[in-house]
């Protein structure tokens, strides 16, 4: 195999200083092997979780782990029919994530437009200001927010979480969208204006197609962050607005076995994110390779 | 093109948004909570007995009373955080919470929970006199009012392998002293390959190593504080007790003792790695479960003593009603059902007698069906709970209620910090004297605050 091949890796530039075309067989194979190893390392815990979710509680708790234990749907059965119904928390999470993501996009895209294509005065200061709101540790804001929610009678209300998730994700979304929008070539905008396209037409026909992958990537990131948020949800919700991550923690017990059921629950809760990720896969690859990280 | 492909998705998102806005009453926040104006909200720890309760509530409580119950279930540490946050701010989101006999007197003093005497008097069917006296006592605050009702309770006792002791020709006394237990541990240690003499908790935590260890301190004549709030953590009796405990577990205890808590000791005992175990009476249910390898091989005797007549601890997961709740009547109806003798029978019939939330009512221990299932440990458990005296657990008067803890809010921090030194001593990294001298300083800080209020 090429991994064991000790031949020197070819220089990446010729003597004339021009970039050499990458040689597929050697460095290419090495890189793809590395990519596979890293990929497998990342996927392994998830695969392990899925496998454990199909084991019985007793088999899930053994040490050393019993990989080939018989498979069962018991974990899923008790998740859906065991104690409390999982649907209200899942719907709460979906509501909070989808609505906050939509609001974030509605606010972040115009803001990013004003920071890149038609930059406002001192736009770098503005950008830094957006970022500075993320510098306060979330937990430092927890107590004031709790007291605020209690006094405004908004505890255990999903709309409160929507507002918080929107404001938590907005700075990130503005930064991401700004870097995507600055990818739009100035020449394209000039050409559009020469051809007599107005703002709306330019936005719709010139800018949108270029940045749509970026919007998809931003939306997915905001969705994932809101979907997985635990700290605020745990403190600010009770029985009505409880979200899926809080519901997940309820499977942990100090008496008795819970691993298989917890894995089943964790897998079900991860599904919406996985589905969204797969659905937007091609956009994401374009989107995430756009911008400053190209 | 891209836009065209995304259009269905956008349409779906818009539809969802509308649905979310208009349909929020179903799962979104509203003041009345889920289930209408009669519904109550219950916050409780995720223990198997609570999960059974959750399963039985709709069919057997809501159907009869018309009161829907919304449960929030969290792991033990999380539930303590959430309860103290909720009750200290009197947010009123929960009507009922599962509180232990550690929290109830403290919460009662802060007026975070409501007294139950009126409800008890008006509900003769609940039969308060059937609740074991130490339980009633430990859920009564300094003002003499009852603030909690036990759901299930436990004391501590000594569990041992009858077969192993018999093989070695050792007789276990019915009321052993700690010295006798240490001698037996030495005699049976390593006689069966891989089996240590005794399992004792060593894991740091006020509720881990200091649960059994404080009972040892009590019976050796020690105490955390005297009645006039003098810290006694490095007093000779306290030191002798901790030295004895550390020596015993280091010489004849389980492997990895400094990290062993309840769960580790349960596993050690089930897997035959130890011949004896001093811990909660509730462990016996797991040891005698149908799939347990040590079922039928275990004997149970009273908690070992030294200077006191008994030394078992007392712990009860109980129900308390939040003072800020505006549905206290419904909350009491729920508690009255969940803590009743009828509920125990319901669990016995529906789920099996081994799953009954026991350890709180005298009538449980005269129920023939329960005794048939739990004959091995029912009487030792009842005896252990009945002989516990939370007001007077040692040889001297105490400033606060509690056997394996001192019932002050500072104890969780104090106990946990001192336990870290004890755990290090068990691991051999620190001497007992050093650990307790440090503990004395911490305890004195706490004591000083109370002295200034005397």
TrEMBL record, chain A:
Location in or out of the cell: Cell membrane
Signal peptide from the UniProt entry: none
GO CC field: plasma membrane
Top-level taxon in the UniProt lineage: Bacteria
Chief localization: membrane
InterPro entries reported for this sequence: BP-dep_ABC_trans_perm, MetI-like, MetI-like_sf
Membrane topology summary: Multi-pass membrane protein
Name of the protein in its database record: Mannitol ABC transporter permease
Provenance organism: Spirilliplanes yamanashiensis
Automatic annotation (TrEMBL), chain B:
CDD domains found in the cross-reference section: PBP2_TMBP_like
Keywords: Signal
Alphabetized SUPFAM superfamilies for the sequence: Periplasmic binding protein-like II
InterPro entries referenced in this protein's UniProt entry, alphabetically: Bact_solute-bd_prot1, SBP
Keyword Signal: yes
Keyword Ligase: no
Database matches in Gene3D superfamilies: Periplasmic binding protein-like II (3.40.190.10)
Domain of life from the UniProt record: Bacteria
Signal peptide: 1-25
Pfam families for the chain: SBP_bac_1
Name of protein: Sugar ABC transporter substrate-binding protein
Source organism (scientific name): Spirilliplanes yamanashiensis
């Amino acid at each position: 195999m090429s991994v064991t091949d000790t031949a020197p890796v070819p220089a990446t530039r010729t003597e004339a200083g021009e970039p050499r075309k990458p040689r597929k067989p050697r460095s290419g194979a090495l890189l793809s092997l590395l990519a596979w190893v890293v990929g497998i390392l990342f996927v392994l815990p998830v695969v392990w979780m899925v496998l454990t979710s199909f084991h019985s509680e007793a088999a899930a708790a053994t040490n050393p782990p019993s990989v080939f234990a018989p498979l069962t749907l018991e974990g899923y059965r008790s998740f859906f029919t065991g104690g409390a119904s999982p649907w209200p928390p899942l719907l709460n999470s979906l509501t909070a994530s989808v609505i906050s993501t939509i609001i974030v996009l509605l606010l972040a895209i115009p803001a990013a437009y004003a920071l890149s294509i038609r930059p406002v005065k001192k736009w770098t200061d503005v950008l830094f200001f957006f970022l500075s709101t993320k510098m306060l540790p979330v937990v430092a804001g927890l107590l004031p927010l709790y007291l605020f929610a209690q006094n405004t009678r908004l505890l255990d209300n999903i709309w409160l979480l929507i507002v918080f998730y929107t404001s938590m994700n907005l700075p990130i979304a503005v930064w991401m969208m700004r870097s995507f929008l600055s990818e739009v070539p100035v020449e394209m905008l000039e050409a559009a204006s020469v051809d007599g396209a107005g703002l709306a037409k330019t936005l719709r026909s010139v800018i949108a197609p270029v940045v749509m992958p970026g919007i998809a990537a931003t939306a997915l990131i905001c969705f994932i962050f809101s979907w997985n948020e635990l700290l605020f949800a745990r403190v600010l919700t009770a029985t009505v607005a409880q979200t899926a991550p809080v519901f997940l923690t309820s499977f942990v017990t100090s008496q008795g076995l819970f691993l298989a059921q917890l894995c089943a629950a964790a897998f079900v809760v991860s599904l919406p994110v996985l589905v969204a990720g797969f659905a937007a896969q091609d956009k994401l690859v374009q989107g995430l390779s756009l911008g400053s990280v190209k | 093109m891209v836009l065209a492909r995304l259009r269905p998705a956008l349409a779906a998102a818009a539809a969802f948004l509308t649905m979310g806005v208009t349909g929020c009453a179903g799962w979104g926040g509203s003041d009345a909570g889920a289930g209408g104006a009669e519904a109550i909200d219950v916050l409780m720890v995720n223990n198997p007995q609570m999960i059974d309760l959750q399963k039985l509530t709709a069919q057997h409580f809501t159907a009869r009373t018309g009161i829907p119950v919304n449960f929030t279930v969290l792991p033990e540490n999380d539930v303590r955080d959430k309860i103290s946050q909720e009750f200290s701010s009197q947010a009123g989101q929960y009507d009922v919470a599962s509180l232990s006999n550690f929290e109830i007197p403290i919460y009662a003093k802060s007026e975070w929970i409501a007294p139950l005497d009126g409800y008890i008097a008006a509900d003769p069917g609940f039969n308060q006199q059937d609740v074991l006296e130490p339980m009633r006592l430990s859920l009564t605050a300094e003002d003499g009012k009852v603030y909690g009702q036990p759901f299930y309770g436990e004391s501590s006792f000594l569990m041992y392998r009858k077969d192993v002791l018999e093989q070695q020709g050792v007789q276990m006394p019915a009321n052993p002293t700690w010295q006798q237990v240490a001698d037996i541990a030495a005699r049976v240690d390593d006689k069966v390959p891989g089996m240590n003499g005794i399992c004792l908790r060593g894991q740091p935590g006020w509720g881990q190593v200091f649960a059994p260890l404080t009972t040892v301190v009590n019976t050796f004549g020690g105490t955390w504080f005297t009645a006039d709030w003098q810290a006694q953590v490095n007093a000779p009796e306290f030191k002798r007790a901790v030295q004895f405990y550390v020596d015993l577990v280091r010489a004849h205890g389980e492997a990895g003792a400094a990290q062993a808590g309840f769960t580790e000791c349960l596993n050690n005992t089930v897997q035959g790695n130890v011949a004896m175990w001093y811990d909660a009476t509730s462990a016996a249910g797991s040891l005698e479960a149908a799939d347990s390898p040590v079922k039928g091989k275990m004997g149970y005797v009273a908690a070992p003593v030294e200077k006191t007549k008994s030394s078992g601890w007392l712990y009860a997961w109980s129900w308390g009603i939040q003072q800020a709740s505006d549905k206290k009547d419904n909350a009491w109806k729920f508690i009255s059902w969940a803590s009743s003798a009828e509920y125990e029978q319901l669990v016995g019939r529906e789920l099996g007698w081994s799953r009954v939330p026991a350890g709180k009512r005298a009538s449980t221990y005269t129920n023939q069906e329960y005794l048939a299932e739990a004959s091995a440990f029912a009487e030792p458990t009842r005896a252990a709970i009945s002989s516990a005296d939370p007001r007077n657990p040692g040889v001297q008067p105490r400033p606060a209620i509690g056997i394996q803890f001192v019932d002050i809010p500072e104890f969780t921090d104090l106990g946990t910090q001192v336990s870290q030194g004890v755990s290090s001593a068990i691991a051999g990294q620190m001497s007992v004297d050093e650990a307790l001298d440090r503990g004395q300083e911490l305890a004195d800080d706490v004591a000083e605050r109370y002295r200034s209020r005397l």
